[in-house]
Specification:
The chain is of the alpha/beta class. Helices cover 47% and strands 14% of the residues. A four-stranded parallel beta sheet has the order 6-5-7-8, with helices on both faces.
Length: 239
């Protein structure tokens, strides 16, 4: 008798809300990257979208309320709901990754490691929040692989922070995109051979076909890593 023999697909948990649009974008990218010809081929995805999680940059740089307790709680919600792995679409929150991992038994993907593993160039420009830039999350990962990181000049970094918070506030994206492209051009002029979109808000406006150098979109790379992990070991065949 014909029938399907399957190993179980893994359920992805999205630890979201930082900000909500980035969480939606990750979910959409997971759908787009999943090989599927019908509803049943897609992956189960559980989302905990908690925008009440305290601001990561404020906590890291200015002594603001720590987001770690809420990050841990959200991870536990996802685990209890049936997630087999967690993807967290916020670069700055990866500062707390070790602490979050201690709170659950399921794996949490490291967006920064996944992104840096994909880089082919020797010199990359890097755009992210002040918190992510100043604690050196990407710098450390790149240094281990012999990759030089160029960050924006002070005024350009201020502009990037303005863009990020404007996106969170729901402002019109065309003007924000133009400001971001100007920063990319500045990095390229200083020798950047590629650029990292190291904030999930920047992933919402930066597109590869609109800039002249390779773009490493951390959100897009995280989505692919989540799909790969969820489908690892999965087989479907007729017998």
């Amino acid at each position: 008798m014909n029938g399907e023999v399957k190993t179980k697909k893994k359920t992805i948990g999205i630890l979201g809300g930082m900000g909500p649009e980035a969480s939606v974008a990750l979910f959409r990218k997971i759908i787009e990257k999943t090989p599927a010809s019908r509803d049943q081929d897609h992956l189960r995805v559980i989302i905990d979208n908690n925008p009440a999680i305290p601001d990561r940059t404020q906590a890291i740089l200015h002594g603001g309320e720590s987001p770690l307790p809420m990050l841990k709680a959200s991870a536990q919600v996802l685990e209890q709901a049936g997630a087999d792995l967690i993807a967290m679409p916020c670069n700055s929150a990866h500062y707390y990754l070790a602490g979050i991992r201690e709170a659950v038994k399921i794996p949490i993907l490291d967006m920064i490691e996944e992104t840096v593993k994909a880089i082919q160039e020797r010199v990359v420009g890097f755009m992210a929040t002040d918190g992510t830039v100043q604690v050196g999350l990407y710098h450390q990962a790149c240094e281990k692989r012999g990759i030089e990181v160029l960050q924006p000049e002070a005024e350009d970094q201020k502009a990037i922070m303005g863009v990020i918070y404007s996106i969170k506030a729901g402002q019109e994206k065309l003007f924000l995109k133009q400001k971001t492209h100007r920063v990319v051009r500045g990095l390229q002029e200083r020798g950047a051979e590629a650029v990292i979109a190291g904030c999930t808000e920047l992933s919402l406006i930066l597109k590869q076909d609109e800039i002249a150098i390779p773009l490493y979109d951390a959100l897009d790379i995280l989505a692919q890593a989540a799909v790969n992990k969820a489908l690892s070991g999965f087989r479907s065949r007729r017998k």
